[in-house]
Description:
Layout lengths: L2 E6 L7 E4 L11 E6 L2 E11 L24 H14 L3 H7 L3 H4 L13 E5 L1 H4 L11 H13 L1 E3 H7 L3 H10 L3 E5 L17 H12 L6 E6 L5 H14 L3 E5 L7 H10 L5 E4 L5 H12 L5 E4 L11 E7 L16 H12 L3 E5 L4 H8 L4 E5 L11 E6 L5 E2 L2 E2 H12 L3 E5 L8 E4 L16 E3 L4 E3 L6 E3 L12 E4 L3 H11 L5 E4 L9 H10 L5 E4 L12 E6 L13 H13 L10 E6 L5 H8 L2 H14 L7 E9 L2 H13 L10 E3 L3 E8 L2 E10 L2 H17 L7 E6 L5
Parallel strand pairs: 8-13, 8-14, 9-11, 9-12, 10-11, 12-13, 15-27, 18-25, 18-26, 24-25, 26-27
Antiparallel strand pairs: 1-2, 1-4, 3-4, 5-6, 5-7, 16-17, 19-23, 20-21, 21-22, 28-31, 28-32, 29-31, 30-31
Amino acid sequence: MTVIHVALDVPVNRLFDYLAPNADSADIGRCVRVPFGNRQLSGIILSVSNLSSVPERKLKTAGLIDQAIPPLPQSLLELFEFCSHYYHHPIGQVVMNGLPALLRKPGYTTSRIPKQIQEWILTDAGRIITLSDIPARSKTKRQLFSLLLENGIITADIYKAMSPHSRKLLHEFKDLGWVEQRTALPGKFAFSTVPTLAPTTEQAHAIAEILARIGTFTPWLLHGITGSGKTEVYLQVAASLLAQQKQILVLVPEINLTPQLEATFRKRFPNTPLVSLHSGLNSSERLQGWLQAQCGEANIILGTRLAIFTPMPRPGLIIVDEEQDHSFKQQDGLRYSARDLAVYRARQANIPIVLGSATPSLESYHQARIGRYRLLQLHARAISQAVLPAIHCIDMRVTPAQERLSEPILDALRQSLDQKQQSLVFINRRGYSPALLCKSCRWIATCKRCSSRLVVHLRNRQLRCHYCGDQQPITPACPQCGDPDIMPFGHGTQRIESALIKQFPNARILRVDRDSIRHKTAWQTMLDTIHQGKVDILVGTQLLAKGHDFPNLALVCVLNADSSLYSTDFRAEEHLFSQLMQVAGRAGRAHIPGTVLIQTEFPQHPLYLALIRQDYAAYAQTQLKERKSASFPPFVYLAVLRAEAPVLAEALEFLHQTAAIATIAKEYAHIQLFDPVPATMTRLKGLERAQLLIQAVSRKCLQIFLSDWHQRISALPARSKLRWHLDVDPLTL
Ligand SMILES: [Zn+2]
Ligand SMILES: [Zn+2]
């Protein structure tokens, strides 16, 4: 009997066995349709054997094994297995989540996948044939062959246009050994005429270093300030690998917000097949791109975190741009870090990986400091005239302000308007104001389903919860005491926009946040407006900070950064520093010197002092010291067990139970389990949440412990309405 072991999208961590009389090891990695209960499911064959733990009479027979799509490469299957093991997530769900949605869809037939285009090339044997070897009466035959002699190749559109018999004739040539058939590459491989920029000394050094270790697993941390030209390093290293017919995987945080990198790659390599994989694609576009990567037709694969699961037969280089960005970590389902998996993939394929950032994550920076990663630094801006922006703090304890806008900021905006330069006012909070408050009884509008305040959206006269999306009309009076004098408290982008309109009635002001770019095309339209110089003052959230060059932007004003300074989240400060460096980096690119003004009540805070000096290294070292003394990553390894239930007590009780069944045996001596506590955001979407933190001195210890513990928890009797999950290397606690 032949048994296939199939990964299916079901929440059980095992493979499912089916009889498949004709299957053999060549089918490993192929898609198969199988009966499951009273349904038909699509799955992936992970192994083939003649054994099953299920008695033969109970085994069902598998349906069709899909031969149209090449099997998933072994390396990808290994990545899935690693992922399932490391993140303690069911293997079938890991595999099926990593595939394009259409392949997962039961009933989807691969006949709908467009056939690959074939082309014919002349063989060495064909080259010595002359036209006189072909009888003169076979006119079409001669015509076809003369074309082959001339070009060495003939593509489908050409031979089809010539004669309906071409295909048959080409097959005759093939039988004679004169030509070979191959799958066409979309677009010929050639280098662009767009000139590569002459690298700066630092860039040239970085490029040479990386290229010197091509073909070996080498993790590089490319730390370069904004404007230092990290992209040029990516491009020139990529060019060298593309010339060796290698594939390049480029991971970016959010493609819709950072279309510039994609555009740059396309411009530099116009004839190189590039696929872009992100959530903005429809499912058939996504499948197409994925298949092109899988068949080796696409040489550049650019995508967001999910693209880490793209099969590549000829991998040569992985680039993770803005490696510190939190969007590389998936926050639900399989909670993986695409950046960390990228390092795994590079090691597996024995290729270099470049992690690029202006403010590397402390994890990566630490790896570079202890020598596990190699550090490359770009200190200077690539355009020689461009200087770093001057950063100043405005002490809000002594400076008067109206509507959160201090005098120095209003003056600077006025001056910038006079000089016809653009300004950016950064406030990382959308909506009109973050709370609605009753002055008489201190009542605050809160969400019924979450432990959060409702945000005032004045334009739509609505109160919205930014966590669950709930919305309701603004109440005309306080529901608690009836006082009609309820007022918006605090500032969001909309309120600042209104205040600026009042201050500068003639300025062209544009607000950019998630509310204003809700429509798919809105973002591009806004970018165009900004680039065409039709905007004087931009008001926006960190959306604006992400990878955009605004050549005429000279002034950046930061309004409310302080809120992250004394947060309970140990990563909040690191995140703030990175965000402010990014937003400050927008000022004064090209040939305009930039100014950055930051309003704060803590002008002496080490974060601001380091920011003023734009000294990432010094800041990172202080932070790392603090993390070390407080036992936080990267000096320890964390996992969080989270539970949610309609009532908090149930979630806590469950966590206590899981703690009780954890065996902290001798070999786990370096594991510490903390007491279950309510989550910072206790109520979310009507459920109450609690968590239990696990800390370990090594990744290995943590993994050994978690494997055992996860099994024990899974074996506990299921409780209705209680859900739990394990988050390994969590970003937030
Ligand atoms: Zn009241
Ligand atoms: Zn809510």
